[in-house]
Amino acid sequence: MRTRLAPLVAAVAAGLVLLAGCSGDPTPSGEGTDRTVSGLDLSEGWDWQPQATPLELGVTHTQNTLDAADVPEADARGAAILAKSGDWQNVHLMGFGTLNPEPSPGDYDWSTLDRRMKLVQDAGAKTILTACCAPDWMKGGQAGQTNWDELEKAPDPDQFQAYADLVAQTVQRYPQIEKVQVWNELKGFFHPEWNRWDYEGYTDLYNRVYTAVKAVRPDVQVGGPYPVMISLTRDDTNASDEVTGPWGALDQRVIDALDYWFANKVGADFLVVDGGTAVREGTISGRLDDAARKFVDVDRWLQSKSNLPIWWAEFYPDVPPGQDASATSQASAAATLSAVDAFARSGAAGALLWGPQEYDLQYAALWTDATEADGGQPTPLTPAWEWLVPRLAAGGMELGTSQTQPLIAFRAPDGSVLVANMSDQSVPVQGQDPIPPYGIGTAPARS
Fold first, then answer.
1. CB under 8 Å to 404, separation ≥6 — which residues?
2. Interhelix angle for 330-346 vs 382-394, to 10°?
3. Exposed/middle/buried for 194, CB within 10 Å: 0-12, 13-18, 19+?
4. Among 315, 355, 352, which residue's Cα sits nearest to residue 61?
5. Could you report the per-residue pLDDT of 3-53, keeping only the tens digit for each?
6. Cβ-contact 33, 20 below 8 angstroms
7. Which residue, of 175, 285, 432, 437, has the greatest Cβ tally within 10 A?
8. pLDDT one-digit tens code per residue, 250-303
């Protein structure tokens, strides 16, 4: 059995409430032992900012997400959390849990995609399709075979239309699909000999997919180009002079790819990006919300280039060296909230948590490994994420930053509050136990 994890739940001036989250005992998400801590005042020494626009949260299913190999009881616990995990759930066309949908031209296998689509429907969520990746025969491989080592290879240019036709068939087969993200992180489109992405090739593929989807399902929203917003040190030869901050500088090659796509796309309903808080090959230091400032700066730069709604298909908030970075880490959970706070401040339209089930990625998940008998348990992130999902989607939240302590807060229109400690230091609370490092959680409205 894993060690019980105790995320913090904070209230306004009347007191601070702790909910004992759990990753070992079969306690439903959000339940636990309450105790009140008085002395925390959110009215003095706080800066408050209104939420810029409604923010829709969701998850991306990966290879490890509530599948047939799970323990039934663990799967049921995970499914209960999934049902409260967001308005949107994202499924890949091929890979990341789904098999090759067209192993040979005209020979289709929809079985695994059928299961994933049913998983989303059963959770009551809306569906995003990531149009990635491509069958082997579209990228120089042999028809009828799938080499998963070649998953991230882009289709050959003479197969772009065949791939677009496959995506069009997919949205026809699954009427539940409401959004399509075209490709994933420009996979296979980087040319080392050019020292840049083949943004011309990607945009050609994007335009064909956009046109094919709109021809059969004009109601489906289509977006791209889904680059990684890479952070570099400012002295890197590829660092941009245009988009910089204390977190570093954007990779100019990413900006070039975006600029080409903006100028040459045939249409788009939303803008897709992803990225993390650390510089490439590096890490962060100090407060989590300072590192998450990158997301604010990137969003505001993107808004200066386009009025398309911004969707973060993936986001990876890192923790400082020496801190536990894992699916059930308290620090990783707090880092996730720092990113969500940044998205809400800057006006992002959506953000998807990559991999809601625990596996080896060093970022927060929403439930523990459901292949284990004691799996499907909430993590330190779960109660706060479930609290935020409906409130951020409704809009009207206030976002607070303490000027005297390393705390951030989300305040709903009804007065209920979520507070998170952004540091590895305990925060003293008058007359009561201190807020532990990276403590997070929710609290009821004031009476």
1. 45
2. 10
3. exposed
4. 355
5. 222 333 333 332 334 333 333 332 333 333 222 334 567 878 899 999 999
6. yes
7. 437
8. 999 999 999 999 999 999 999 999 999 999 888 898 999 999 999 999 999 999
